[in-house]
């Protein structure tokens, strides 16, 4: 009798725990989505420029095409060139719009297989116009030998975007010649590591653990949720994230995530001379 009651109580507790856990996971997803929106808002102007510029070019080029068509002797070569350019501009605007839509999508995609370098390059492209406006160079160092991973792409991309956005904010007072964010990857045994390094104001005397506390912010318009949400996402993938002081000034954020297929490590070349400027990709 007592055993039956105890078992029933245990079963009830077990069910409550499961319900709480799934509610907690749901809340975490909602929070990640909300901070993605906040992040997109912060990226704002630069991202829209990436869409507005090709659209303006399309308008200009289609007006030229109309003029060409109105001429008596139609220059087919010139028209063909214009059409090809129109196509390119349309694709550029469309690709950027797709990246934005993907960023803002409310979907639980779950884990999928993809190339980490493509995901990082995609994230950097979203920020490219904003970086250019702030005269910041984005450098990619894809050092991981086997870049295939199986993660929730959207969520991990949100982490990379957050770290890039923070790195750019931290360099507001950095001399222009040093305004450079380096994103690199490297194999770390069964894990893959993504490092985002900047030459910003760094952390002063602050303990780096404080940065990951919810609502901790030193920015006038900061929310203080970017890093805690990033940590939640990374830990949900079985990984870890930490902030380090960068020798010579600035910060390095290191994200380590498990991926399938362990690789032998390869040393990271953090020197700015090594790597591919995003604009060249
Ligand atoms: P928010 O960006 O809204 O302030 P975050 O959680 O993303 O929220 O960041 C918390 C704080 O961590 C920032 O306000 C800033 O003080 C510090 N921080 C984050 N990234 C960097 C960085 N790259 N360099 C220096 N400080 C940083």
Automatic annotation (TrEMBL):
Catalysed reactions listed for this entry: ATP + protein L-histidine = ADP + protein N-phospho-L-histidine
EC number: 2.7.13.3
Coiled-coil blocks: 69-96
Keywords: Coiled coil
Domain (Histidine kinase) ranges: 46-261
Molecular function (Gene Ontology), one example: protein histidine kinase activity
PROSITE patterns membership: HIS_KIN
Top EC class of this enzyme: transferase
Pfam families per UniProt: HATPase_c
PANTHER family in the cross-refs: SENSOR HISTIDINE KINASE, TWO-COMPONENT SENSOR PPRA
Designated name of the protein: histidine kinase
Organism: Ramlibacter agri
Lineage of origin: Bacteria, Pseudomonadati, Pseudomonadota, Betaproteobacteria, Burkholderiales
């Amino acid at each position: 009798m007592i055993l039956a009651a105890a078992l029933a109580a245990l079963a009830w507790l077990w069910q409550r725990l499961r319900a709480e856990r799934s509610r907690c996971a749901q809340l975490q997803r909602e929070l990640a989505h909300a901070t993605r929106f906040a992040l997109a808002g912060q990226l704002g102007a630069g991202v829209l420029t990436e869409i507005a510029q090709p659209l303006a070019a399309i308008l200009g080029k289609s007006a030229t095409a109309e003029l060409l068509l109105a001429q008596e002797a139609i220059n087919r070569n010139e028209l063909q060139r214009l059409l090809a350019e129109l196509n390119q501009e349309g694709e550029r605007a469309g690709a950027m719009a797709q990246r934005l839509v993907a960023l803002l999508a409310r979907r639980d995609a779950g884990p999928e297989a993809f190339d980490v370098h493509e995901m990082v390059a995609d994230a950097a492209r979203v920020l490219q116009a904003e970086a250019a406006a702030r005269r910041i160079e984005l450098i990619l160092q894809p050092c991981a030998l086997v870049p295939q991973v199986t993660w929730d792409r959207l969520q991990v991309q949100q982490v990379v975007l957050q770290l890039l956005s923070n790195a750019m904010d931290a360099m507001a007072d950095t001399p222009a010649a040093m305004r450079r964010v380096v994103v690199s990857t490297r194999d770390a045994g069964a894990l893959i590591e993504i490092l985002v390094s900047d030459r910003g104001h760094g952390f002063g005397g602050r303990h780096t653990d404080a940065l990951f506390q919810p609502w901790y912010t030193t920015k006038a318009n900061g929310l203080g949720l970017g890093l805690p949400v990033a940590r939640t996402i990374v830990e949900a993938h079985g990984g870890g994230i930490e902030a380090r002081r960068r020798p010579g000034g600035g910060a390095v954020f290191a994200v380590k995530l498990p991926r399938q297929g362990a690789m032998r490590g390869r040393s990271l070349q953090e020197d700015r001379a090594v790597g591919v400027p995003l604009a060249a990709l």
